[in-house]
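User: My notes are a mess, but here's the protein and asparagine's SMILES. Can you give me a structure?
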Amino acid sequence: MHTYTIAELSAALAAGEVSSVELTEATLARIERHQPALNAFITVTAEQAMAQARAADARRARGDAGPLTGVPIAHKDIFCTDGVRTSCGSRMLDSFIAPYDAFVVERLREAGAVMVGKTNMDEFAMGSSNETSHYGPVRNPWDEDTVPGGSSGGSAAAVAARLVPGATGTDTGGSIRQPAALCGISGLKPTYGRVSRYGMIAFASSLDQAGPMAASAEDLALMLEAMAGFDPRDSTCVERPVPAYREVLDQPLAGLRVGLPKEYFGEGLEPGVAAAVEAAVAELRGLGAEIREVSLPNSGLAVPVYYVIAPAEASSNLSRYDGVRFGHRCESPRDLEDLYKRSRGEGFGAEVKRRIMVGTYALSAGYYDAYYLKAQQVRRMIRDDFVRALEEVDVLVGPTAPGVAFALGEKSDDPVQMYLQDIYTIAVNLAGLPGVSVPAGFADGRPVGLQLIGNYFDEERLLAVAHRFQQATDWHRQVPEGYA
Ligand SMILES: NC(=O)C[C@H](N)C(=O)O
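Assistant: No problem, the inputs look usable. Here's the predicted complex:
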């Protein structure tokens, strides 16, 4: 049953064709078998998973099971999990056992989902290839010599290899959508404020957002419904009812106005990706959508703006890891300064250090106005571009990433090349809008992602369009060889 979607597993559980205990056992066995090749997990929580599975079966027997009750899932290791190591992919937090559950973890647990483990990720979510993880790189199941994307690469690889039917991720500049694209799965970054950030280790707080990753848009809808909602413990979380996302999936596309941002089809886009995206657009047209060209004139500024704002916020957020209150502590420090220096020097990897330095510089006296303030002003212009475009059309469509999965090591020595992975995703975070990536074919045998961007809190429409596209295509059903 490992190729079943969450919706299909949910139906099988409801029909009594399988128990959660059986499903969870099979899931744990598959993880054990493929972990050496993929390295998608940092921690596997077999014992707790079996206990949760037994509880889920008991709950079903009592007659109060929901659609996720008994379904195995995994959490990105950025979410705090009570009593379970929460490393954020960093040596800094290698021995951190969270004392409470993140909101997202709590909500999925309450829905009855069974947590089988914590997935690998780029250190503190900084990266687009999963190569910055302290626990080693994750491999892409479509070609194990290539990267899965990042930073939610472990979640993406685990779903792509059908080790779990769904997993959580976080997206600060593309970290759900880009790995979803590179691994041939579906991934949704909700509107900023739709999902609580409580218990999610902070990277860049004005951009971070949690979201679901799964094979299909229908599964994303099922997961989002459990994950979304108001939480007073996150002051940026918006109090707004959560729609029954799955109920509103079936909508015809006739008359849907789809905008193609012309800036998303220019220089830097690999021809194979362009061809797959164009074919997907033709498919949407065939389903009744009306396609027009739109412009996001400031989109070329999104990557530079992000690489001022995100490191600035990160430098502040990561200052708490001082070896005293939080994080790795060096052996026998000479004095307090030595303790700080060596603890941080040993605990953080190169990319994290680079960002702390850039961010500290951008915020320092004399440079603040020139960099940070300026970046915030341009951020507003980027947002305004989207607001204008979304007055003309209902959704924007384009590629998720400029290319397909690349070889391990290919871009790790060139931060700018790595940052350019997110040229089509980052602006969406700067604007706070929702975006989804869905599988849309292959180029050179590797998956291509199609990105759909919607208006604020219009996840319903995004999911409905993605679902209709998936009813007409079977890209989301493709499973890499050796994992089918
Ligand atoms: N965290 C993210 O959303 C990924 C982005 N590539 C970054 O390194 O910041």
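The domain at 6-255 is CATH 3.90.1300.10 (Amidase signature (AS) enzymes).
User: Great, I'll file this with my notes.
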